[in-house]
Amino acid sequence: MTRTASAFWLNESGKGEVRQVTLAEPGPGEVEVRTLFSGVSRGTETLVFRGGVPENQHAVMRAPFQEGDFPWPVKYGYLNVGVVQNGDLKGRTVFCLYPHQTRYVVPETSVTLVPEAVPAERAVLAGTVETAVNAVWDARPLIGDRIAVVGGGMVGSSVAAVLAAFPGTRVELVDADPAREEVARKLGVGFALPGNALDGCDLVFHASATEAGLSTALNLLAPEGRVIELSWYGDRKISVPLGEFFHSRRLTIRSSQVGVVGRPDRTYAERMAVALDLLADARFDALITGHSPFEELPEVVPKLADGEIPALCHRIDYGRDHVSE
């Protein structure tokens, strides 16, 4: 008998629907997961939702369990927490880089156990905190560094949260939205509007995905300082201010991308485990700024994309079982 589950698919720019999809029986080495929560990462996912992935980046931007091809129709997402329904892991809470779907079957090696100290509701942040861990590995900050994070979205705030516990550093979150000051306060870092940010930085993480943000990041650097560029601009062209003081201060811009582990002595699985361990810290709850039931995803996503719902990570709650036979 055919079993089905419910999944969110994007059909065209700004529109989506919940579809019934076939749910396979788990085979050897596979687990079936019943989703508890998923998360919408507003930056990357709304870029996908509006069809902004450049054609030459279609392969790079594929999510691990994506179905369909860019621009549409596509089933996309990568922040999913659920409970295993079979095998040795039955009853265990796991994180998986899986789209918004009520149940799914994946290889057991594709799920990571959520530590008991981490609530399932907070574990949806693991994918983005993993990106932050990778950025910090790429940056290799030193004790005593003066650090700014320009762009207080989900990725930037995750980086600030990871750095907040780094010893002896000055960490300031910089954002044009004054409302981000409350997020910074909860994370335990400083906050400034772009015009008031502390300069003389050894290291700046840029995550605003704007030309103005990149200019601010470069302006804040001390001589020999580095910008770690985390922004994904999609199909937009931007200007980089490489005149004026860029050469005289011997500044560096380095990209950081989660597709490559920032330390050669660590694996993808080890990086994810580090991210989940960090999520035992309740400060990360500041990054979940709203929640909605799964059934409302077709109405919620356009509001997230146009800013009607302001959000860092918007959590999707799966309150009931949607499997049918």
Please describe the topology of this protein:
Layout: E1 3-12, E2 15-23, E3 30-41, H1 42-49, E4 67-68, E5 74-75, E6 80-84, E7 93-96, E8 103-107, E9 111-113, H2 120-123, H3 126-139, E10 146-150, H4 154-163, E11 170-174, H5 180-187, E12 190-192, E13 201-206, H6 211-219, E14 221-229, E15 252-255, H7 268-278, E16 288-293, H8 297-305, E17 313-317
Parallel strand pairs: 10-11, 10-13, 11-12, 13-14, 14-15, 16-17
Antiparallel strand pairs: 1-2, 3-6, 3-8, 3-17, 4-5, 6-7, 7-9
Helix pairs in contact: 1-8, 3-4, 3-7
If you had to describe this structure to a student in words, what would you say it looks like?
With 325 residues, the protein is α/β, with parallel strands linked by helices. It has helices at 42-49, 120-123, 126-139, 154-163, 180-187, 211-219, 268-278, 297-305, and strands at residues 3-12, 15-23, 30-41, 67-68, 74-75, 80-84, 93-96, 103-107, 111-113, 146-150, 170-174, 190-192, 201-206, 221-229, 252-255, 288-293, 313-317. Strands 3, 6, 7, 8, 9, 16 and 17 form a 7-stranded mixed β-sheet that branches. It has a 6-stranded parallel β-sheet with strand order 12-11-10-13-14-15, sandwiched between helices. The protein has a two-stranded antiparallel ribbon with strand order 1-2. A hairpin with a 2-residue loop joins strand 1 (3-12) and strand 2 (15-23). The model has no long low-confidence stretch (mean pLDDT 94).
